[in-house]
């Protein structure tokens, strides 16, 4: 489990999108407070990358497969950028300094 910025969980609503330029998955927000914005995602422990039906995504323990274009309804929160040094992530998948990285704690 990751320490969330501010210690609070929030509702995460959006669509999983795959960016072929950097080979990373992002959340495209549909939450009314942040519509259309994208955020890098940190998944729960045990999540594995997959390709299913030609679409990239993840297999989340206890939830199953979520692939490019699927709707996400989850809980989590922002992670302080200082905490990201300890997280293994492919180069470029954590976005820029201005991007808010979202830690997914539960997928519903």
Could you characterize the architecture of this molecule?
The protein has strands at residues 10-19, 24-29, 38-42, 48-52, 55-60, 64-67, 71-78, 102-107. By secondary structure, it is mainly β. The model has no long low-confidence stretch (mean pLDDT 84).
Give a quick precis of the structure.
By secondary structure, this protein is an all-beta fold. It contains no helices and 8 strands. A hairpin with a 2-residue loop joins strand 4 and strand 5.
Distance between the termini: 17 Å
The count of DSSP E runs of length 2 or more, i.e. the number of strands, is 8
Specify the structural class. Answer: mainly beta
Residue share in β-strands: over 45%
Sheet having the most strands: 5 strands, mixed, barrel
Spatial arrangement of strands, main beta sheet: 1-2-3-8-7
What's the arrangement of secondary structure elements?
Elements: E1 10-19, E2 24-29, E3 38-42, E4 48-52, E5 55-60, E6 64-67, E7 71-78, E8 102-107
Parallel strand pairs: 3-8
Antiparallel strand pairs: 1-2, 1-7, 2-3, 4-5, 5-6, 7-8
Please give a handful of descriptors for the protein shown.
108 residues, 5-stranded mixed beta barrel, mainly beta, 3-stranded antiparallel sheet, single chain
């Amino acid at each position: 489990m990751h320490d969330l910025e501010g210690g609070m969980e929030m509702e995460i609503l959006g669509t999983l999108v795959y960016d072929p330029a950097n080979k990373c998955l992002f959340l495209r927000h549909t939450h009314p407070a942040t519509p259309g914005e994208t955020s890098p995602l940190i998944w729960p422990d045990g999540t594995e990358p997959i390709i299913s039906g030609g679409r990239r995504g993840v297999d989340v323990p206890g939830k199953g497969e979520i692939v490019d274009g699927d709707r996400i309804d989850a809980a989590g929160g922002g992670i302080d950028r200082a905490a990201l040094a300890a997280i293994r992530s492919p180069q470029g998948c954590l976005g820029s300094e201005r991007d808010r990285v979202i830690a997914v704690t539960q997928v519903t």
